[in-house]
Amino acid sequence: MFRIKICGITTAQDAALAVSLGADAVGINFYKGSRRHVPVSEAAPIVASVGGKAIPVAVFVNELPETIEEVCRVLHIEVVQLSGHEPPAVAQRLKFQRIKAVHVRDGSELLLHRNYPCDAFLLDTSVPGEFGGTGKPFDWGKIEGVRPGKPWILAGGLTPENVAAAIRTARPDAVDVASGVEKVPGKKDPQALKSFINNAREAFAYVKKY
After folding, report:
1. Domain containing 8 — which CATH number?
2. Which domain holds residue 140?
């Protein structure tokens, strides 16, 4: 399980930068409705730039399982993130490590997904019509005491300024950020990346210690 995932990576340069600064995973978004969409034909250099030093994660929204399998086969990606309304049957067909995004409104959503066939959950903010990358946090108190029985990743409105408090409060296994470290959608800010990764690592070390 990774600890720090930088999502919405659109260039090999940003992927290499994130990894050099200490990111454990980078997310490549294949959802055409996203402002951070990467065409499959342009994704290979991003995967190559990771160079085995971090985990590339393929992000999909309501995609056909056969399409997911083909994209991951071509790009040699072994971890997928399902960020839409994918039914359990879709996840069961996939022979990859699976992260299921759960969009939180009142905290009950995680309980509804408790038996979903995945390896980890990603908890993101529920915004009508959106599937992530909104830059909006949810009330971390709504998931206090709720444990899904498998690793889980905190997302939604995280920034260099609030990620440490988020980790200390919610105690996730990992964190995920996209808009919180960007200049514009799809273009990462080097200083924000560095601060986010450093602050997250320090907070994880604190939580582990105490």
Report:
1. 3.20.20.70
2. 4-209
